[in-house]
Specification:
It contains no helices and nine strands. The protein has about 90 residues and is an all-beta fold. A hairpin with a 4-residue loop joins strand 5 and strand 6. It is globular, with a radius of gyration of 12 Å. It starts with a strand and ends with a strand.
Length: about 90
């Protein structure tokens, strides 16, 4: 099964800030941290019980499969920077 993937640059926040993905389908979110701020060295997707360390300038892939339509938060480990996943 082929899954879609989305690249998210982590630099002073998340770019793009809002990512739209299909529900009931596994999507790979590829995080690349370019910001040396320690605040952004961890990404948290609380709705999916995911917490990942993001080394500087390395791609870290997180797979999510939203079971329902809606919005899911992306945040840094300190909950200062935010992004959103929209599932339809």
């Amino acid at each position: 099964m082929v899954s879609d993937s989305v690249d998210i640059i982590v630099d002073g926040g998340y770019q793009p800030e809002v990512v739209s993905i299909p529900k009931d389908k596994t999507t790979k979110l590829n995080f690349v941290r370019k910001d040396s701020s320690s605040c952004l060295e961890e990404v948290v997707l609380a709705d999916f019980k995911i917490r990942k360390y993001l080394p500087l300038n390395q791609k870290v892939t997180v797979e999510v499969t939203p079971q329902k339509s809606g919005e899911f938060d992306i945040s840094c480990g300190m909950n200062m920077f935010h992004g959103k996943i929209k599932a339809n």
